[in-house]
Predict the structure.
Amino acid sequence: MSRVFHRSARADPPLADHGDGSVIVGADGRRYLDACGGAAVSCLGHGDAEVVAALAEQAARLAYAHTSFFTTEAAEALADLLVEASGGALARAYFVCDGSEGVETAVKMAHQYHRECGRPGRTRVIARRQSYHGNTLGALSAGASAWRRAMYGELLLPTMSHIEPCHPYRLQAPGETLEAYGRRAADALEAEIRRLGAENVSCFIAETVGGATLGCTPPAPGYFARIRDICDRHGVLLIFDEVMCGMGRTGTAFAFEQEGIAPDIAVVAKGLGAGYVPLGAVLCAQHVFDAFRDGSGAFLHGHTFVGHPVACAAALAVQTAVRRRGLLAHVRTKGARLRARLDDALGAHPHVGDIRGRGLFQAVELVRDRAEKTPFDPGLRLHERLKAEAMARGLLIYAVGGGAGGAGGDHVVLAPPYVVTDDEVEAIATRLSDAIAAVV
């Protein structure tokens, strides 16, 4: 009998024994092709010798040093790499343990920034419906995944409000161009700022490419350029949540590079440490940091394991490997191949409504009626059945419900390691297609 409090209180999951590249091997010897990287985490796969060596070397040299006393070479070098990867758009890095903590930190950073600038009335946070920003209370308040919030509604922060997401498949009007839709979707932010009063709004937070809840939805052309303009005109900080879509997952170091604009604050995690360590980072622009330096002089925030040297050393090895091995280009080419194979296998399927994404971050949305885009009955728990069917076929997928609003909608997120091979891409498309055929 397991004494672990597992996600399900009614069943124990199978025991994972070891990993090998894109494969996880169970204690019973079964091999599972990890087509989702756990949750878009394992970007280098398992058993990367360089990362393991860097982790061990740092642990032997210095396992831990509290950031109220010291900085470390690992943290400084990783911050340098991330700032340089942003092309100078971001200037400072604050290291945390995961994405939820990163979002909490980013929102608090924005909150204190306005106080340092003499604007204490700016307390409101605007986010988007169908978003997911984490599971701590602050991050859950910012997110708008209905089924995740339902249990904790009484505990969520009242200072959050939500606008419609940029979701062309669901919200673009008939006959409307993508560009026109993107502007209309962005203008919802301006309307909400005016409703609240710009003098009361601290920040707007959004996933650059929609993640778990929205299912790898890229923004419409011009959407974020318009968002950037609106934020600038109203003195609102722009926060990009790139916990899932960042650190190379969409083919560039930061997903926002493909939008031609930059945020004031960005949050990354998951692929930052590739699963070898739990690590996230909050990066801010120079003007944000300057407000703290020229104001009170300190960010009134901190956790015990902020800037953990072993985690930073491992992440530094991960990010160095991604660049030295040319894996960003690999993400683009293998992502295009995966998309082509999904289109071939599922593009005409009567119950596949949409295939979307960027790089090695692709999603397949399932519908009862393709023409009407009608979701399946939530009571069928189709995504859960599909996950189980795929796993029985040796394929791990990230299957999610509620993507069409409320409890409705079923989609699959695919986020394999950046080192995925052509044969593995073929296996992902084939096994997923077979699993969908079996379940639907």
About this structure: Residues 353 and 370 are 5 Å apart (CA to CA).
